Amino acid sequence: MRADRPFTSAARRILAAGGAVLAAMTASAAMLAAPAAASTADVATDCTPDGTTACVSPIVLDANNDPLPGIDVTVSGSAFEETITSTDGPVSIKVPEVGAYTLTVDLATVPDGMAPNAQERQVTAQLGSTARGAFRIAPGSAPPASGSTTEPSESATDAGEGADTGEEAEAGGIGADGSTENLSGWPAFSQVWQQFGSGIRFGLLLALASVGLSLIYGTTGISTFSHGEQVTLGALLGFMSINWWGLPVWAAVLVTIVICAATGWFQDVVLWGPLRKRGTPVMQLMIVTIGLSMALQYLIQMFIGGQSRRVLPSNARPVEIAGITLSAASWLSMLVALAVIGVIAWFLTQTRIGRATRAVSDNAALAAATGINPDRIVRIVWTMSTGLAGLSGMLLAISFGSFTWTLGMILLLLMFASVTLGGMGTAFGALAGSMVIGLVVEMSTLIPGMPSSLRYASGLLILILVLLIRPQGLLGRAVRVG
Amino acid sequence: MDELSRILIQALGQLIAPATAAYALAAIGLNLHFGYTGLLNIGQAGFMLMGAYGFAIATIEGAPFWLAFLIAAAAGALLGLILGIPTLKLRGDYLAIVTISAAEIIRFAGRSTLWAEYTGGASGLAGTAYKTTFQALSPLPDGRTAIGPFEYIHNGSDSWWTRIFAWGLVLVAVLLVWLITRSPWGRVLKGIREDEDAVRALGKNVFSYKMQALILGGMAGSLAGMLFVLPISVSPDNMGRTLTFFVWTVMLLGGAATLWGPVLGSMLFFFVYMLVRTGMRSGLADVMPTQNVEYLAGLLVGVALMCIVIFRPQGILGNKKELAFDVR
Question: Structural domains in chain A?
Fold first, then answer.
């Protein structure tokens, strides 16, 4: 379950009311900022984590996110089993050794007509911190929405002040389920390995989106700022086709790709094509992509508002392969991403159009002179890139559990970092760059004291370092770029 | 009829609102970057956030008003320096990529718990914590005055004093921009915008000129951030990417590379924006919820920005020839 971090969580602002409890629950450092939380934040009623103590704390909430007393939760691990009963306040228990523990709700203690959203949660206990697992017990028999929580995004939005109505989301999505707080001490190997797996997953999914960004840059010279929203659009369409239109997942993937690719084709027909003919400077086109990004962002918000949405309605099923635990959906997403990347590589190196694409990317005038129609190639690139971005968005939303409208905004930064790291305009550079960025972002959460909301900052750091040391990127040719 | 005049008065109020002044000042800084020097800064909100935090934190730590003011400006200058060093020697779009990323990261950093002791984390800093030194500066007696349809209290957050100070600062900035852009220094900037290599061939240090422009515009941006939070509170989520995009719209609407473009753009933009929003809110009340009206308004701003750039890149006041340059 560790892997199932929702990308963000702003959504449930209403929950901010339950700030104190939620804060204890989410364990995210970011949470402790909420003022309500600051005073009562810590769990430690009967276990205080320190350098030699590891604590595990179950959190049981009702549908309104108020603590639900009287529920028995069993904490079990290697050679350890203890049952604690939830109270009105936080409870925690000292565990003898670090490692994985399972929290199990005793269904007999759950009131009639109510059901927990999950019966078991996996947490990883660490020295110096409290590992928390949250259960929400709500009326009904089927597991409802999610136990992956939410941070009460406390936002003092002055809606009247023009700009950012509703921009309250937080990027460093932390699921409460079993997320741990890294207070002190360097992580164990198993954690590093686990984050390595998450990093590979993130890198593969990121690569799908950044290859498109790189191809667009290569063929048109535009760094498109709307590419992030194209990713969110994919997540949104995935959500809508599964939850609103009731399509099976494979059909939803196809529908998402087709619609997203159609948006790219349409943009090139009505917007980029005519502007190319007019000879509009690239600088102006980049500002047009800013306008497009803003328009798309608000369009997406008209559908989902500020809420975080789950693409797959069912709860994630953890699957362990080679010591890495990710949800089954994540593993499948990685497979799909790998396959698609393989197809892209085949397309670019083996097919006529793919080779023409690389030729245009290299030198458009020369390519035109050899009989390639750059206009046609650019149209294909826009269509393909937006389709890939859509696929990437949907798979990301599936793997991370949920998404909000900020998904693309965060990804855009990481895509730019990947593309710059790999070498702008080179498709395979974007792939390599994405893997590096994915790994760095996921593994940077292992650094002690690093709030996970800041993990995306590592992308910026890499971006600046690359520009200082090797501006043409890993695979870029050493031409003058300035 | 009553409804109509209420909407109109509300929109007219935007013409002199402190937020409008803040946007104007931010756009003046951006104009120095983009209009005069040709630098693509897509992270003006980051500069504004630095200024807002700089001013608020300095005041909370006990600095007098003018020291906090200087710290706000210095925060913007520092950010400009940090972002300029890796990017200004490279092609123009690297600056764009780095600034848009940096603005978001500053926002994340502001709302993270790491420095929550100072920044207040996600909830930001309450206005009352840092407004007192500014309001103590007011020479106006307590009371309220109505001029035409505008009636505000003299002192306080949403007051005449805030408006006088904000617009005064905007006027000073306009004067400075007028002075520096008609100097030899300003002509070098325009030369860099048109042809960097030609200017380099003339023996000018292009990097240094670009850096100076980035820092000066960044300082204008960070002071705009201070103006932005003076009537309200420091809330990182209010100062994200959308803020940057609005500043761009404001600047391009009025006209890049013009003296009064940002000011005109800001006043016109917020007048129309408020008119459209309140109009739609009462007109579309039956069709969609209020929140969606806000989203629709934002969508329209995005479309408007695209249309401005496509159909009238010089904006209202600008000269089309001045905006034919490209990234290199």
Answer: 13-151+170-185 (2.60.40.10), 191-469 (1.10.3470)
C-beta separation of A459 from B68 below 8 A: no
Chain A residues closer than 8 Å to B301 by CB: 294
> What are chain B's domains?
2-323 (1.10.3470)
Q: What is the pTM of this model?
A: 0.76
Range from A112-116, A443-447, B181-185 carrying the lowest mean pLDDT? A112-116
Cα–Cα distance for residue pair B302/B249, rounded to 1 Å? 8
Q: What is the pLDDT of residues A302-344, one digit of tens each?
A: 888 877 788 877 766 777 778 777 777 888 888 899 999 999 8
Cβ contacts (< 8 Å) between A30 and chain B: which residues? Answer: 111-113, 121-122
How far is CA A69 from each of CA A60, A91, A137, A142, B283, rounded to the nearest angstrom?
A: 8, 10, 11, 21, 48
* Mutation target vs B (from A294, A424, A447; most B CBs, 10 A cutoff): A294
State the number of CA atoms in the 13 A half-sphere of B286 facing the CB. 1
Please list every residue in chain B whose beta carbon sits closer than 8 Å to the beta carbon of residue A161. 19, 228, 232, 238
Q: What is the complex's ipTM, to 2 decimals?
A: 0.90
CA distance A115 to chain B (A): 33
Name the residue type at position A128.
Answer: G
Which residues numbered 87-146 in A keep a CB inside 8 Å of some CB on B?
none
CA A189 to chain centre: 24
Distance from CA of A409 to the nearest CA of B (A): 9
pLDDT digits (tens, 9 = 90+) for A263-293: 999 999 998 989 888 888 888 888 899 999 9
Which chain B residues are Cβ-neighbours of A287 within 8 angstroms? Answer: 248, 252, 305, 309
Instruction: Quote the CA–CA distance of B247 and A287 in Å, as a whole number.
Output: 12
- Count chain A–chain B contacts defined by CB atoms under 8 A: 230
